[in-house]
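4.2 Preliminary Data

To establish feasibility before requesting continued support, the project team ran the inverse folding procedure on a target of 213 residues. The structure was first converted into the token representation described in Section 3, and no sequence information of any kind was made available to the design step. The complete token record follows.
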């Protein structure tokens, strides 16, 4: 499996194009905006898009989903259905963040802990990691020890929990008791900012290493 990170929107959200280098079929994880730039990257890599994957329902992660799903005839998989209220509130989110109105959509498949999503001949495992939003999921590719974790965990920080449905302790539990079990050597793409590894964050991230306060 291969991947390319394409930051989108004024929030520099890390949309990630992942693809199977055997079949050259790929998926966009969290197409938050800038659909023409995303499609240009897809063309550059010679990838055939087959689906859209979503980590959670925040606008900067899903803003171009409706437009791309209808213009490219793509199914939408994820997030967990506990984020339905965020997706239903897309118009209000756009207003709140001063984004242009984005096309509404409904996921074709809600995801749960233990589910698998396919990208060409590759498979990604699904982890349900609530706290930043109640329906947040993480996508994990076991063979390459790689994950897209959205706004659960960042290099040196964790996701905000002050939005509706957020909960700080729930997020800490999801990181420590679910995400970290994947192993220290797993590298991850966060929703914003540079990549890191789970081991580096477990050791040095003040929010989850137990070293704070
Ligand atoms: Zn978010
Ligand atoms: Zn975000």
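Position-by-position output of the design step:
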């Amino acid at each position: 499996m291969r991947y390319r990170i394409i930051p989108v929107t004024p929030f520099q959200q890390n949309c990630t194009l992942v693809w199977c280098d055997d079949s050259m079929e790929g998926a966009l994880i969290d197409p938050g905006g800038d659909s023409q730039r995303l499609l240009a990257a897809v063309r550059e890599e010679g990838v055939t898009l087959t689906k859209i994957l979503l980590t959670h329902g925040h606008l900067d992660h899903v803003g171009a989903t409706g437009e791309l799903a209808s213009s490219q005839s793509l199914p939408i998989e994820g997030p967990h259905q506990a984020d339905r209220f965020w997706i239903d509130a897309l118009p209000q989110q756009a207003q709140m963040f001063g984004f242009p109105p984005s096309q509404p959509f409904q996921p074709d498949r809600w995801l749960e802990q233990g589910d698998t999503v396919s990208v060409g001949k590759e498979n990604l495992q699904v982890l349900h990691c609530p706290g930043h939003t109640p329906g947040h999921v993480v996508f994990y590719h076991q063979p390459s020890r790689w994950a897209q974790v959205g706004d659960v965990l960042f290099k040196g920080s964790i996701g905000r929990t002050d939005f509706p449905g957020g909960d700080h302790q729930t997020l800490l539990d999801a990181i420590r008791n679910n995400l970290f079990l994947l192993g220290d050597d797993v590298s991850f793409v966060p929703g914003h900012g540079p990549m890191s590894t789970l081991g580096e964050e477990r050791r040095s991230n003040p929010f989850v290493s137990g070293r704070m306060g």
